[in-house]
TrEMBL record:
<feature type="compositionally biased region" description="Polar residues">
    <location>
        <begin position="127"/>
        <end position="139"/>
    </location>
</feature>
<dbReference type="GO" id="GO:0005829">
    <property type="term" value="C:cytosol"/>
</dbReference>
<dbReference type="GO" id="GO:0042262">
    <property type="term" value="P:DNA protection"/>
</dbReference>
<dbReference type="Pfam" id="PF12643">
    <property type="entry name" value="MazG-like"/>
</dbReference>
<dbReference type="GO" id="GO:0006253">
    <property type="term" value="P:dCTP catabolic process"/>
</dbReference>
<protein>
    <recommendedName>
        <fullName>dCTP pyrophosphatase 1</fullName>
        <ecNumber>3.6.1.12</ecNumber>
    </recommendedName>
</protein>
<dbReference type="GO" id="GO:0000287">
    <property type="term" value="F:magnesium ion binding"/>
</dbReference>
<comment type="function">
    <text>Hydrolyzes deoxynucleoside triphosphates (dNTPs) to the corresponding nucleoside monophosphates. Has a strong preference for dCTP and its analogs including 5-iodo-dCTP and 5-methyl-dCTP for which it may even have a higher efficiency. May protect DNA or RNA against the incorporation of these genotoxic nucleotide analogs through their catabolism.</text>
</comment>
<keyword id="KW-0963">Cytoplasm</keyword>
<feature type="region of interest" description="Disordered">
    <location>
        <begin position="118"/>
        <end position="139"/>
    </location>
</feature>
<comment type="subunit">
    <text>Homotetramer.</text>
</comment>
<keyword id="KW-0460">Magnesium</keyword>
<keyword id="KW-0479">Metal-binding</keyword>
<dbReference type="GO" id="GO:0047840">
    <property type="term" value="F:dCTP diphosphatase activity"/>
</dbReference>
<dbReference type="InterPro" id="IPR025984">
    <property type="entry name" value="DCTPP"/>
</dbReference>
<keyword id="KW-0378">Hydrolase</keyword>
């Protein structure tokens, strides 16, 4: 692991999380329960718990500046639950999540190109460029 830029914290890789989750499950003999279906359903449950945090808050500003510290800690715990189940699910399915995510970003860049600027507006502002129409027709 490398030192991060902020506060000397360590950067965490998906591989590190995967290994820690695998070790955790093996130590408890839980692997037999970690089928893709079970992991997906557990993750959906955690997404529900994450949703509950936001349920009655209305719009929340980026960075959650009006939240109490204990609310942010709880948010971090629920986000972590979702992430850890997602990493475990990708392992159970034999998917390299990091590579899949990078590929998806590349595909999205093709599907949603940066608008071309003209003198007074961007192509795509209120209209679709011909390249966007073509991509949308393919999907």
């Amino acid at each position: 692991m490398k030192k991060g830029e902020e506060g000397g914290e360590e950067e965490v890789s998906l591989q590190t999380l995967s290994k820690k989750m695998d070790d955790f499950a093996k130590a408890r003999d839980w692997e037999k329960y970690h089928s893709p279906r079970n992991l997906l359903l557990a993750m959906v449950g955690e997404v529900g718990e994450l949703s509950e945090i936001f349920q009655w808050k209305g719009e929340v500003a980026r960075g959650c500046p009006d939240w109490k510290e204990e609310e942010k800690v709880h948010l971090g715990e629920e986000l972590s639950d979702v992430l850890l189940y997602l990493v475990r699910l990708s392992d159970a399915c034999g998917v390299d999540l990091g590579k899949a995510a990078l590929r998806k970003i590349e595909l999205n860049a093709i599907k949603y190109p940066v608008p071309k600027k003209t003198d007074d507006h961007c192509v795509g502002d209120g209209e679709q460029s011909s390249s966007n129409i073509k991509l949308n027709e393919e999907h």
